[in-house]
Each structure stands twice: as structure tokens, then as C-alpha cells.
Amino acid sequence: MTIRQKPSYRPFMAVKAYDLTGRTAFVTGAASGIGRASAVLLAEAGATVHCADRDEQGLHDTAILIKASGGTARTHHLDVTDRAQLRQAVASCERLDVMAAVAGIMHSSPVLETRDEDLDRVLNVNFKGVLYACQEAARAMLAQRVRGSIITMASGAVDTGGPGLLCYGAAKAAVVQLTKTLATEVGSHGIRVNAVAPGWIRTPMTDRHDSAAQTQTEAFMARMSPLGRVGEPEDIAHAVLHLASDASSFTTGQILRPNGGVAMPW
């Protein structure tokens, strides 16, 4: 009978697993919300972070936050629906270890009132923008022979139906399929591809009602969660860091669901 040796104790192994020192991360949607929180946390873990967004002032503010905590930031003022702009920005990275495709928009309309232009606009940002980021990141990682991590941003909307969320939910469901498909295509090169599917998170994107209606909406969403609260951008940033780091080195093609327990799929 073979007796397995007990693994030797390695101090600070857990901390080292999340250390991104010497690595480069690229975050879209970095001017606010989940994107900003993710960019700041990846920088705190040691990565040089390239921040991309349409909001130039927001990008500037994110870079200030990163630099104030001793991190290194680069900014790229771009539109994720423009493949050429993304390609140029990614090409400026001497090395790319992590891509976090976070940029997204919200739209709400009943199915019977959804217009072609509404669907096209949401798909262009929430699906095509993620697709372009994934394509450019995978090409760079393959060319550089980097065993990198690509992280997409899905949503709890892929697990539960909701009135008015056809465009948003359909785009995020497409992101999940993109994630799984790409994971099978680049896994043999050591590149991991995973999605994060947040629940209700308090961000500028979800803060689209007047103050009274917003308070009522958040109270309702908090009651839906076994934890009794809505999420904060930092809750999702920690999920992004986990998938970006060596702590998830055996994880690919998966959907990480920090949603407060609102949805519990098999």
C-alpha cells in the first residue's frame, strides 16, 4: 500500500497565491464601479494595471487611487466596441497576464417594447465589447506564451429571469457561452477563462432611479438575499482577484457567482 507523504508546511502560501507582483493586468470599464474596484485591488496585489474606459475623468480618478496606494497604473481612453482601439491598447502592454473585461451598460424595457436599436446597443457593449477584449487578450497571451487569466463579467441575470432585462440578460448569457467556448480553445496553452456573475451591486450603473426609488429597490434586493444585503464593488473585485491569481490555477470555464445567495443553480 502506498502511503502519501504529508505536504510540508509552507508559510504564507495563501498570501503568495494572490500575489501578482511582476504581472500586468488590463481592465475595461475601469472608470467606476466594479471595474474601478477590480483595477485598484489588482494593483494592490502587485500588478501593473492598464485601465480602459470611455470616461476619461473617471479613468484619471482611478489612476490616482491606484498611485496613491503605491500601485502602477496606465490609462487608455477608448470605446470597447471599437476593436481597433482595443487592439492598439492591448498591444501597448509589453506583457499581458490578466484581462478583466468588465465594461457594460444597463438597459431596461419589456420584451414587447424592445427596439432593435436598444438590443444592438446593449449587445455591442456587453457582448461584442467583451468578445473583442477576449480576442485581443488571447492573441497577446498566445504570442507571448503567457499562462494568463481572462475574466469576463456576466450577471446574476443569466440564472434568473427578470422583467425588462431581455437585452441585458441575453448579452450576459452570450458572455457565459463565450467564456466556456474560449476556455476549451486556449486551455491547452495554459490560459484560463472564467466568468463572474454578480448579484445586485451598488454601482453607478444600478443607481439609475431617484433616491427614494433607489432606496426601495435596494431594500427589496437585500430581502431577496439570505445575507440580507446588496453587494458592493469590492465584493466582486475580490472574485476577480481570485480568478486572476494562482489561487485559481485549476479553474477554467467556470462561473463564479458572488450574488448574496439570490440564485443557487446546480
From TrEMBL:
Signal peptide: none annotated. The keyword Amino-acid biosynthesis does not apply. The keyword Oxidoreductase applies. It comes from the Bacteria. CDD domains: SDR_c (cd05233). Keywords: Oxidoreductase. Gene3D superfamilies: NAD(P)-binding Rossmann-like Domain (3.40.50.720). Pfam families: adh_short_C2. Belongs to the short-chain dehydrogenases/reductases (SDR) family. This is 3-oxoacyl-[acyl-carrier-protein] reductase.
